[in-house]
Amino acid sequence: MNNEDVLNLVFKISNKISYEVENETVTILEKQDHFIQKFFRKLKFKIPMYKKIELDKYSSFVFLQIDGKKTVKEIGYNLESAYGQDSHPLYERLLMFLNHIECNCKYVERVN
User: Fold this and answer.
1) 3-class DSSP state for residue 52?
2) CB 60 within 8 Å of CB 25
3) 91 vs 32: CA distance, rounded Å
4) Do residues 47 and 70 lie in contact, with contact meaning Cβ atoms separated by under 8 Å?
5) What is the pLDDT of residue 9?
6) Which has the closest alpha carbon to 79: 90, 67, 92?
7) In angstroms, how far is CA 46 from the centroid of its own chain?
8) Cα(110)–Cα(81) distance, rounded to whole angstroms?
9) Which stretches in the chain have pLDDT values below 70?
10) Sequence-distant (≥ 6) Cβ neighbours of residue 63 within 8 angstroms
11) Which of 106, 107, 109 is nearest to 19 (CA)?
12) CB–CB of 7/107 below 8 Å?
């Protein structure tokens, strides 16, 4: 992939995750339903059903921009408009974050 192809990628939020938004901060809710967790719940251990992961302000902003229509370039432009120099190096950070939440966390999926 060349740089133009990468900037034209479009992502959407996975249907397999749940999240909450409060005061523009996103909290990802990861279901804890491994058989060991279920077993210990039956033994009355206090294991929450969801693990809550709170994103920082930049990550929350980017996550809320992901709608299945906006390209990486558009998300980067919006991020720079909102946070200015604080968002730099812009596309290096943005692409690293998107790659992480796609490949490692499975929070987003590529549309194209």
Assistant:
1) strand
2) yes
3) 33
4) no
5) 95
6) 90
7) 27
8) 24
9) none
10) 13, 19, 26, 55, 101, 107
11) 107
12) no
Domains within the chain, CATH numbers bracketed: 3-110 (3.90.930.60)
The reported pTM is 0.88
Do the beta carbons of residue 29 and residue 40 sit within 8 Å? no
Residue 110: predicted pLDDT = 95
Per DSSP, the three-state class of 8 is coil
d(CA 31, CA 49): 6
First and final CA of the chain: distance in angstroms?
A: 13
Share of the chain above pLDDT 90, in %: 92
With contact defined as beta carbons under 8 Å apart, do 75 and 8 qualify? no
The alpha carbon dihedral of 46, 16, 19, 78 has a sign of: positive
Please give the structure tokens belonging to residue 32. Answer: 């804890």
User: How far from the centroid of its chain's Cα atoms is residue 3's Cα?
Assistant: 22
- Rounded Cα distance between 111 and 56, Å, is 25
pLDDT at res. 3: 84
